Amino acid sequence: MEREKDLERELAEEIRSAIRKIAPEAAGSASDASPPDPLRLAEAHLTPSVPDGARLSGLKKVILRALRLVWRDQAAFNALTLEGFRRARQEWEGRFASFRDAAEREVAESRRRAAVQDARFAVLEAAPRTPAAAPAGRPPAGSTFPEPRLPDAVYSLFEERFRGDPKKIADGQRFYLSFLRGAPGPVLDAGCGRGEFLGLLREEGMAASGVESNPISVRLCRDAGLAVVEGDAVASVAAAAPGSLGAVVAFQVVEHWPAAQIFTFLAAARRALAPGGVLVAETVNTDSLSALRAFFLDPTHVRPVPPAALAFLAEAAGFADVRIEYRSPLPPEERLAERGENDARLNRLLFGPQDYAVIARVPAR
Among 42, 88, 311, 319, which one has the highest count of C-beta atoms within 10 angstroms of its own C-beta? Predict the structure, then answer.
């Protein structure tokens, strides 16, 4: 009996040795615990054996011992074949998972675009009818002529094409979450747009709401379950009760306002924030000439806001601990190869970070 066990161990070791020569990482895998599957069941029959208690078991075991040298190479071949099937299945499972993930992303993006289109149509259908034209050279009685602006549907189309993928926007904004954790109150996202940052705050379990002037974006945010109201960002911040907010954020908003309106917004935020509250205002980095292409691409931008100017206005509004964070660096292939200090200076001037943010706090009492 001991001799038979020794022969079986020797044969098993020879099979493992053959497998190691072709698939080293497969050695010992037969002992891994996993749910039964066809490959596992096939492996159980790699080495012929006679169950105890089988009819004529003694004779069968003698015959098997005599034939071990004959089927030893076949057993090794069988083991390698099964290992090949296992690897092929793992590769196809990986490809299927990658295809499934890509399909899910495409479906989600298609749904988002469909929602954007639905929102545009809803806004257009709700638009008031254009009054009959007045005689040339004479305006209608009692009429006023507000400053022309792009239709909301047109601007939503612009954002859809040039703003970028919402997931990438959210990934870039994730950086600011660390400044808001522990804020002494809810967060107000002024000019929340498509709601990327509000979605991040919801993931963090932080109380937050947004205000947005574009009704199409408002509808998209509400469809996503975000608390967003339609209105003017400056007026909404000014209407907040003193000390009622823990943070006010404004991403790519201040460049849409003249300087006086920026200061009004900052002063209103300072009043609405509780002691220790945080302000985050991100905009285009005017210190980088390449970033100005993006600035002038948006037809609703009013004027560039240099980092030093925005930091000064925040300090003048009563904020403390004012700091500037530069964001969105260009990839190396879009920058000059730096072979000296002059190249580094040119990179800072021409191809510096595309955005920056002023981060400031209300002094704690």
Answer: 319
What number is the average pLDDT over the span 115-126?
A: 53
φ/ψ bin of 88: left (φ > 0), alpha (ψ from -120 to 50), beta (otherwise): alpha
Helix (H/G/I), strand (E/B), else coil: 46: coil
Q: What is the pLDDT of residue 158?
A: 72
Nearest of 172, 205, 179 to residue 355 by alpha carbon? 172
Residues in the chain, overall count: 365
What is d(CA 31, CA 17) in angstroms, rounded to the nearest whole number? 16
Pairing state between β 273-284 and 355-361: antiparallel
Residues 6+ apart with CB under 8 A from 41: none
As its CATH architecture, domain 152-361 has 3-Layer(aba) Sandwich (3.40)
Of 266, 270, 269, give the one whose Cα is nearest residue 257.
Answer: 266
Q: How many CB atoms lie within 10 A of CB 3?
A: 8
Q: Where are the domains of the chain?
A: 2-99, 152-361
Q: Which two tokens stand for residue 11?
A: 């044969």
| Rounded mean pLDDT, 249-273 | 97
pTM above 0.70, yes or no: no
| Terminal Cα distance for the chain, rounded | 86
Contacts of 228 (CB under 8 A, 6+ apart): 192, 195, 198, 209, 210, 211, 212, 217, 218, 221, 222
Amino acid, res. 142: G
Sign of CA dihedral 20, 25, 26, 30: positive
